[in-house]
Structure formats: structure tokens, C-alpha cells
Amino acid sequence: MNRSYPVVRMQCAEFTSDKGMLFFYGLSIGITGIIVPIFMHGVEVSLSLAALLTAILVRPMLSDSIAGEREHRTLETLLSSPIHGKSMLWRKFEFCFFFALGYFTITVLCSALTSFLAGGEAALIPWQWMCIMIVAALNYSAICMGGVYASSTSGDLRAANQRVSLLAYPLSFLFVICLSVIGTVDLLSALIISCISALIYLWVISRIAAKIWRMKQPDFFQPITIQKPERAHQQRLSLALPRSQFGMVLRLEWKVLMTLKRMLLSFVFLCFSPVAMVCLLLYFTGTLDLNYAVLLTVLMIPRVPTNLIAYSVGGEKVYKTGEALLSTPLQIRPVFLAKCMIPVLVTAVMLTLSSLLTLAGITIAALIRPDLVSIQGYTAAQLILLFPVSLLSSIAMMFIAAILSLRLRTPRQGLYVTSLLSFLFVFPVLNIIYLAPNMLMGSMIYLAVLGIGNLICLQRISDNITRPQLMSRL
Fold first, then answer.
1. How far apart are CA 459 and CA 6, in angstroms?
2. How many CB atoms lie within 10 A of CB 471?
3. Residue 116's Cα: distance from chain center in Å?
């Protein structure tokens, strides 16, 4: 423990030195733990947002824990000290775990206090809080332990991010389901779901702990192939006299996306999340609320472009390939539009698939239980929020992620900030669904605001970003 203490101290020093991220963490706690309970008149939505936001914020930490050291060529220096590889891995796990649990706990306490001051009574009873905190500790233990192990066996941040996402998203979704059931005040259902969730988390923890225990010191030094994605500038012969620069870059970016198998699998999982949540709430509460599916879809799926565009733009910065790309005859505008088109297409496909799965789930539930559920579809306002609003929100997040990935010191910081800013797009949807007197009118106004904002951003980006400015940021 004494030999590995410098790892913890280094992690804490790096964490506290980034004042901007500390400010964003505090701001997100204030929004999720104070503003949301005031508007929603309860802590249920705040707890779900806190669970998802904690997983989103800790995921880049886990990906960067070991794979970042390996990619930046500092892992060998760290392991050449008296620190054992497994000790370093456990200290990284402890830091990420305490961050995740502390962030969630502070947000929960703020939500409970705000709900008590606003309503004059406790939001949840003691046994509910106890179940929530026990399951939260197991959930973040499983996510952090599996994430650190996945990072230690990944060659670069891209691969680590894919593997951590594939683990963190399902476990976080299971935690959100558990929170929803615990909030129903049905003790038997809450205990059953909590026990099932706890067994799943303990199984993941024991399996990952056994793998870590079997690791030897030479395992950390084994060379892991870092597969750099194929970029447009690597095929110089085809760039001499291109027919369509936009089509060529779009085709190559699509080929790169098809190589990210684990990331695509996590995207498919996200498409099933809304229908699974609606069906589970229907089973435990007996009520069908499509607004909850709309809210979950708008919360999760438009965030997809932030990861894709950060990899596409930030990857040029990480792998030192941006200078070669800018030295080709390619113009900046078609390259930028082609890189942006892939995330937009992926988001559109995911929104369509998620909506169809939700309607199919409702239809099946109505056929099984016609006395409880009737076949219904989305309203006009819900369709506006699901498709045009979600697409324009994803485009806005994509612009933010692309700019921050270039301007900040590392693309990882851009993902951090964008992950937090992306939640700001959810609050107008919350207000439209639960507070607006006319949901359709509110949806149309928000759609117009997003459209105007995106047009302004696109014009400023295309007019003001020059080749020398991009070179200076790479």
C-alpha cells in the first residue's frame, strides 16, 4: 500500500489541478440535485439522471486509467518503479470508485434536501435510501473494476473506451431500473430487484477480481497492438484528382466506423433501453407512460455524436495525423461535413430503431394484457421531440465536441465537457413534457431555436476556421 500511495496522490493531484472540470462537476451536481427536484417535485427523475451522469463522467476516467498511460508512453516508466502492476491497478480502481460513489452520493443528498425543503417531507423512506446506496456501491464497484481491467488490456484509448462503454452502459441501465422499482414503495418488488441486481454486480466483481488476481507483472509490459484507424490522407493516390471530396471522406469514415464493433454493439444496446424501461415500469407500476420513453431517448441517443466526432476529430490530434490530412488537396469544408455526416446518420438510424422497438413493445404488451394496456402511438409533440429535436440536439452537441476536442489540451477533456453540456439539452425537453401548458407549441418553439442555433454555428465554423488555425491546434 505504501509503495502504491504515489499513484493515488498523482491521481488526486491531476484531478484537483483541473479547475475547469471541478467547476463543471459542481455545476452538474447543482443542476441534477437542486434544479431538477424543484421542477419535477420529487427525486425520482433526479436519481435516474444522477445514475446515468455518474456513469458517463467516470467512463473516460476508466478508459484513461491504464490505456492512457500506455498510449502516452508513461506506463513503462511507472512500472519501472517499485510499484507492482496490480497495486497500481487497484489504486486506479479505488480512485475511480470513490469519485463515482462520492459524486452520486452528493447529488442524492442534494436532491433529498431540496425535495424536503420544497415539499416539507422526506422524498423517500429510510429503507429505500439504504437499498439505493447499497446497490449504488455495488454498481460502481462493478463498473470501475471492470473498466480499469478493460483499460489495462487495451492498446489505446479508442479500444478502451469501446470496452468500458460496453460494460458501463448495461450495468448503469440495470441500476436505473432498480432505482425506478425502489421508488414505487413496493417493498417486495424492491427487495427482489435489488437482490437480483446485487447478485449480478457481485458476479461481475468476482469475475473481474479473479482475472486481476491472475495477472502477473510481465502482463503489463506485453506489447498490445494499437490499431490506428484508416484515414483519408493515408491513400494519397486516390486524392490526386478526386471526383467528390465529400463522398470520398464519407466513405472512408464509414469504413472506420464499421471497424468499431464494440462501440456499435453499445449503440444497439442503447436502442433497446427506452422500450425495456417502459415495459418494466408497466410491469411494476401498471401505468404506461410514453413520455418517459421519449425523455430517455432524448437523453441517451443524441449523445452518440459526441463520441463519434471526438474520435474522428480528436483521433487526428492523438495519432498526429492531422497535419498530413491538411497537407492533402482536400478542402476543409467537405472534410468537416463528411466527418459530421456519419454521426448524424448513426443518430437518425438509432432514433428510428428505438422508436419502432418502443411501439413494438407496447403492441406486444397490449396483446398480452389487453385489460391493462391499449395499443397507442406517439403524439405529434412526442414525434417532434423524438426526431427533429433530437437530431438538431445531436448536431449541436457534435459541433461542441468537435470544437472542444481541437481547442482543449486533450480530446478526453473535450469529451468530459461535452458529456456535461449535453445534459443541458435535456432540461428544455423536461420542461416541455411536464411543465409546458401546450406540449406541441413548446416542441415547435424549441425546434425553431435549435435550428437557428445550428445554422449560426455552421456558418461561423465554415467561415472562420482556416487551415492555419487547425494546424496550430493539432
1. 48
2. 12
3. 30
